Amino acid sequence: MVAIPLVNSAGVALHLQMSHRGVLKTTRISAEGSCSRCQKDPRFDRAFGHFNEDLFSKTYGFIGDIQKDEKQKLHESLRNEKNPHRKFAIKQTIERMNSMHKTKERKEQRQKLVREHRKLDAKLVEQGKTPYYLKRGDMKHLEIAEEFERVKRRLGEDANIEKFIEKKRKRKASKQKKFMPNRPEGGQ
C-alpha cells in the first residue's frame, strides 16, 4: 500500500491518495532527516570511536565480583526457598549465569591465544620473516591444543588423553542421538 502525495496546479498539497485494498494505516509520512530527536546507537556510530574490548574489560572488571556475590545470594535463596516455581526460576538463573561465565572464560582464553600469537609473529617479523595471520581453523587447532594442555595439568602428566577423548566423543554422540528424530514403530 503506497501513499502518493498529490499537488494541484497552484502547488498546494492535497490529501494523500491511498489504495482502498487492505487496512489503512494512520501513520504519517515524514520527510527524510526531519526527525527532531534522532537516536544513535554508540555501537555502530563512528562518531563514538572504536570499541576497545580490553579497555572495557579492565574498566568494568568489578562487575564480575558483583555477579559472584549475586550468584552466592541466589544459592542461599535456593536452599531456603520452599515454593517449587520460584526454586525452578532461581535454578534457571544460576544456570544462565554459569553458562555466561563459561562463555566469557572461553572468549578470554581465545583472546589470550591470539595475543600470544601476535607477540610471536611480531618477533618473527623483526627477524625478517613474513607475518602469518591466523585463520579460523588454525585458531581452533590452537584452542584444542590448549585444552589438552589444561587436561594434562589437571589430571597429571601420566594422564590417559585417549580415555579423555573417547569420553568426550561418547558424550557428543549421545547428545546428537538425543536430538535425532525417533524411528517410526511398525518395522518399516
TrEMBL record:
Annotated compartments: Nucleus, Nucleolus
Stored Pfam families: RRP36 (PF06102)
Main subcellular location: nucleus
One GO cellular component, as annotated: nucleolus
Top-level lineage group: Eukaryota
GO biological process, one term: maturation of SSU-rRNA from tricistronic rRNA transcript (SSU-rRNA, 5.8S rRNA, LSU-rRNA)
Region: Disordered, residue numbers: 166-188
Record keywords, A-Z: Coiled coil, Nucleus, Ribonucleoprotein, Ribosome biogenesis, rRNA processing
Comp. bias (Basic residues): 166-180
InterPro entries per UniProt: RRP36 (IPR009292)
Subunit description: Associates with 90S and pre-40S pre-ribosomal particles.
Family, as annotated: Belongs to the RRP36 family.
Purpose of the protein: Component of the 90S pre-ribosome involved in the maturation of rRNAs. Required for early cleavages of the pre-RNAs in the 40S ribosomal subunit maturation pathway.
Protein name as catalogued: rRNA biogenesis protein RRP36
Source organism: Paramicrosporidium saccamoebae
